[in-house]
Amino acid sequence: MLKNSDDQWPEGDLEAAQRAARYIRHDPFPHVPAALLGSATFADYARVTGMVYPFKGFDRQKNEFEKGLIKPASYEVRPGDSFFYFDVHGYRRKIGIGPDAEERFIRLEANSITFCSTDERFRLPNYIAMRFNLRIRHVHRGILLGTGPIVDPGFNKKLLIPLHNLTDSDYFISLDEGLIWVEFTKTYLQPQASELDPYIDVNLPENTQKDFNKFFMEASNGQPIRSSIPTAIDQAEQKADQAMRHVAELREIVRNISIVGILAIIVGMLAIVIPTIDLVRAVAMD
Question: For residues 261 and 277, what is the distance between their CA atoms, to the nearest angstrom?
Fold first, then answer.
């Protein structure tokens, strides 16, 4: 049974967290089968369990869905208030793009990897998994996310999304522009009488709840996470410069050889012509 107050949308992040704790193991809609959830159903779960906050897909004043953010089986998520990248010196940089920031967009440098956080926090109960994909517009413009990463039940934080800009130009994503589409699937739970119960742990390990700083440090073993493309370009440019220097050196060698060859020919011709002239003179004098 639902508490009367839980039938309304959470009034803040604290209330959403309290709802998530209350319903992490208790399914408020047990009649919903294990399957990919449609928009009305995952909106119900977001409203009651606080699994997505803030949930922007429903206009509470108009009491209707925001059509631009909701599809029949997916929900659009926009960028959060910060993003991260590693500069050319290997230092991690955090760029704030919140309400007070001068720039209200994410800048993805050419041939780079940028990590973007979501605005929404996800508090998935133990019976709902999530999958997300990059908005197709960004894919067609040369941005790569990866295909359908799955987020297990029990996940409790914002998403951190690695975006690969494979183009040779900087790319910009506005905070008002969709970043990813997410879908929710209700999982099948083993019956309580199952002989496998002692081996099943629906709670995620603690290492999946790391903050962004610890995640970066442990995921990369303290090394910067950057695209290999700029390094490959630099190496190619260095090799090209070396090749040009070698060509210039060869040209100089060939030029010197040519000069020496010409001089040798002149000397050889003189060696022939001078005795000939002397012979002609001698004959003329006789």
Answer: 24
First and final CA of the chain: distance in angstroms? 140
Is residue 56 within 8 A of residue 178, CB to CB? The reply is no
Residues 10 and 109 in one domain: yes
Is there a contact between 23 and 52 (Cβ–Cβ < 8 Å)? no
142, 204: one domain: yes
Residue 114's Cβ-side half-sphere holds a number of Cα atoms within 13 Å equal to 22
Q: Is 203 helix (H, G, I), strand (E, B) or coil?
A: coil
Is the full-model pTM beyond 0.70?
no
Last residue of a domain, one of 185, 205, 227: 227
Q: What is the pLDDT of residues 17-74, one digit of tens each?
A: 999 999 998 999 999 999 999 999 999 999 999 999 999 988 888 888 888 889 999 9
3-state SS, the chain, equals: CCCHHHHCCCCCHHHHHHHHHHHCCCCCCCCCCCCECCHHHHHHHHHHHCCEECCCCEECCCCEECCCCEECCEEEECEEEEEEEECCCCCEEEEECCCCCCCCEEEECCCEEEEEEEEEEEECCCCEEEEEEECHHHHHCCEECCCCCEECCCCEEEEEEEEEECCCCCEEEECCCCCEEEEEEECCCCCCCCCCHHHCCCCCCHHHHCCHHHHHHHHCCCCCCCCCHHHHHHHHHHHHHHHHHHHHHHHHHHHHHHHHHHHHHHHHHHHHHHHHHHHHHHHHHC
